[in-house]
């Protein structure tokens, strides 16, 4: 809204956005989807997408919960997480972190409701945007269904989908011989004992139906973590997925584990617009979600064009900054050196003990007082320092400052 005066003939009020979104109908949402489809194509043509459009690309499917805090929003309901909200589906590209397609849904919708149409449109968008290489779809067990596997095979898309541990899957895992397990690098591994092993077998999905699907069933077994309940025999945790991909067992299994990055990819746009769907109309919230996904893909494209590597997970949140009044004795969290900004014109008061902040290396006592510079241009109530107090210190009495008089 800051730049509406440059685009229109006058500055618009913030409520204009709400009025505009509430005017949307269901067919307008599909028009927005068509706009984002064309927008993605132009972004990738300009270099704001995956580096090699002719190479293999991986699509991650998942859903997320957007909580709401009122009963008046249509479509908001309780789902499997016992949280009232909406339950949209998102398809992201692993190579660039961009959102290929988003679909708004009510909160009570299952994680994989209507997966056939969702997967078909997602693959179509990737092809329309210029992806000509091999596509692979990764998803969790919510998307394990006959419709997903058969839909992926029609346009020659490979799949890697986690399976639910039903009795048939458990029987197939139990039938794997002991000498078929291959150790893999894992956090629990030691020089003496492997923390995790992988193996595979041939499995027929939906064997009792008219359209059985024969796939590779790849299983990872993990030893009990430290602190687990002791047992006479080692009890493994098993994670199994089905795939029709060719390649080395350990490489395919390691790539399937990278599907976990989709949680961080979804968390990035959810930290902005999709964190809250603000309107009392479902179509307005659907338009808000589509625009937020479009803005996220644009931001990712700008980062790619600027030369940044966006294929990894986002960095952890930074620690609390050092106190400006003691910047000379502070070291940045990354260990680098540099000039810290000065404390600025703001005053500090005397006799106000401060507590050392993280990454500060003081040689003086932790109860050292702050500078006593006073600013005659400020009233008395603004002379109080904002320095933090030590844990064993009580706050000073400010009643004598007569701050109400100012």
The biggest beta sheet reads: 9 strands, mixed
Helical amount among residues, as a percent range? 25-40%
Relative strand content: 15-25%
**Rg (CA only):** 28 Å
Overall geometry comes to: globular
The third-level CATH topology of the largest domain is Transposase Inhibitor Protein From Tn5, Chain A, domain 1
What is the succession of H and E elements?
A: HHHEEEEEEHEHEHEEEEHHH
Q: Structural class, from secondary structure content?
A: alpha+beta
Count every helix, treating DSSP H or I runs of 4 or more residues as helices.
9
Name of the CATH first level of the largest domain: Alpha Beta
CATH architectural type of the largest domain: Alpha-Beta Complex
Mean pLDDT: 77
Query: How many strands appear in the DSSP assignment?
Result: 12
How many domains make up the 3D coordinates? 2
CATH superfamily of the largest domain: Transposase Inhibitor Protein From Tn5, Chain A, domain 1
What strand line-up does the widest sheet have?
6-5-1-7-8-12-11-10-9
Which stretches are low in confidence, meaning pLDDT under 50 for 5 or more residues running? 317-373, 375-406
End-to-end distance: 34 Å
